């Protein structure tokens, strides 16, 4: 079990790897070789004691401490794709692309799923697994048993004797997927898709039941409209949330298909459909770590967020916002509601003990694609990853009070991960603690944003920026930018270009009727035919510009409507929406 008191995170990018630790500057730790390029996967063990990285010519296994690492093994696996540790880090599973055997036999494939001893680096067992989805063994929390799906049956193994074959089975047809629950007496939820007009259903079995010759289920729930399913057990394994989804919505109301949410107890004494009162898809759902309640975000944008009890009674309605992601901190005291993907990237932090006061903090994590809580529950990581977005890749680390603590830009970042902890998270204080001072990189970014946010006078459209600016506006803008005040030219009588250098009355100008007290003010010239023509042309140009701006504004409104209905927009379309304020301001100046 790893001792941990320091916040640590790791990253995987196209050209390098890194492990960083210690708030707030997060320096690179000792003993880690980050020069490798093209790594395919990075995985911490659940106790934070090990870090495995799939490299081009092997899988590097590091032993991890707070501020240093040491390389323990380089497993001989070329072009490994995925990695998975057992709950206590005793076993490491690796998967590589399947290949036909050297003899070219069409029916024989390589044993591409391997289970290793993390401590010794030795292979314990090898299996053939052609598909990546659901390829790894699922272990019980104490690592006494592990389960895998093989064709039309579930197989139970003793991890210490994997090579000896299964010690228990569930033989049945049409198994779609399964999920092993947590807890000291774990259960297994098994999904059976629709078949030949029969409804889909889920059955829950006690794990020990599969060790007998005739397994029996303890709970069952059937439903139509279920092409696929998502399981989420609560932290003690007593209750199961399951979201069913169809590939297509037969009513035509949704592009993403139809979703429904159900609750099922492991003992079979309670089951129901979770009633959601806003039409539209379920964007996310999550259990509170206390296992007694869960949160759902659902409905067409702006989506609705509701907290339910484990008996599916409404605890709190959090209103509607454009949000599609939920993340509880390890203590369950704080949770985030975020809007990622085609949404603006706003993250709201709520205090579970003060819901009546509304959200506690809001932070701007625009363009983020991932969000994680640190094991201590005090820090939050948001990151922008490739290939979802290929610009401004990297991460920001925030304090739970909404303050930015650290920022680091990393080109072509593919993966970010906090180091987990085997220890229970420390109790959260009654009052949200104060944030530490930001790192140098974060302080520099905050300073730039503060400077950029300073007012620079009223907005003027590009076509009017070369004229009509008063000297006071000019001085104020230059002073805001830190420049020395420029001398202001004294106002003088207007002289057209073709009359410069000559004295006397301007041809076509009206006689001055200005009082003697304002002799230095410039007279207003009378407009001749050319001036009237120019003014008319300018008015026509402004009218044409207004028509073009109105068309752009209408297109933006249509894009916003599509986004609010849950449709995924392109990056260029999202950027177009962000220009709405500027377009409205320009229309106001032309109007």
Q: Tally of extended strands?
A: 36
Give me the side-by-side strand order of the main sheet. Answer: 3-2-1-36
Query: How many H/I helical runs?
Result: 5
Rg, please?
32 Å
Low-confidence stretches: 467-534
For the sheet with most strands, the description reads: 4 strands, antiparallel
Note down, in words, how this protein is organized.
This is Eukaryotic translation initiation factor 2A. Pfam families: eIF2A. GO terms for molecular function: mRNA binding; ribosome binding; translation initiation factor activity; tRNA binding. Among the domains are: 136 residues, TolB, C-terminal domain (Neuraminidase, 6 Propeller); 114 residues, no CATH class; 55 residues. About 12% of the residues have low confidence. Helices cover 13% and strands 33% of the residues. It has 591 residues and is mainly beta. The protein is globular, with a radius of gyration of 32 Å. Helix 3 packs across helix 4 and helix 3 runs antiparallel to helix 5.
Short descriptors:
about 600 residues, mainly beta, four-stranded antiparallel beta sheet, 5 helices, Eukaryotic translation initiation factor 2A, mRNA binding, repeat, WD40/YVTN_repeat-like_dom_sf
Task: Write the topology of this structure.
Layout: E1 8-13, E2 17-21, E3 27-28, E4 41-44, E5 50-55, E6 58-64, E7 69-75, E8 80-85, E9 91-96, E10 113-117, E11 123-127, E12 138-139, E13 146-150, E14 153-157, E15 168-171, E16 177-180, E17 187-192, E18 200-206, E19 217-223, E20 228-233, E21 239-245, E22 259-265, E23 271-273, E24 282-287, E25 293-298, E26 303-309, E27 314-321, E28 325-328, E29 334-338, E30 346-351, E31 361-364, E32 370-373, E33 379-384, E34 394-399, E35 404-409, E36 413-418, H1 440-452, H2 471-480, H3 529-564, H4 571-577, H5 580-590
Antiparallel strand pairs: 1-2, 1-36, 2-3, 4-5, 5-6, 6-7, 8-9, 9-10, 10-11, 12-13, 13-14, 14-15, 16-17, 17-18, 18-19, 20-21, 21-22, 22-23, 24-25, 25-26, 26-27, 28-29, 29-30, 30-31, 32-33, 33-34, 34-35
Helix pairs in contact: 3-4, 3-5
Keywords: Initiation factor, Protein biosynthesis, Repeat, Translation regulation, WD repeat
GO molecular function: mRNA binding; ribosome binding; translation initiation factor activity; tRNA binding
Region (Disordered): 451-546
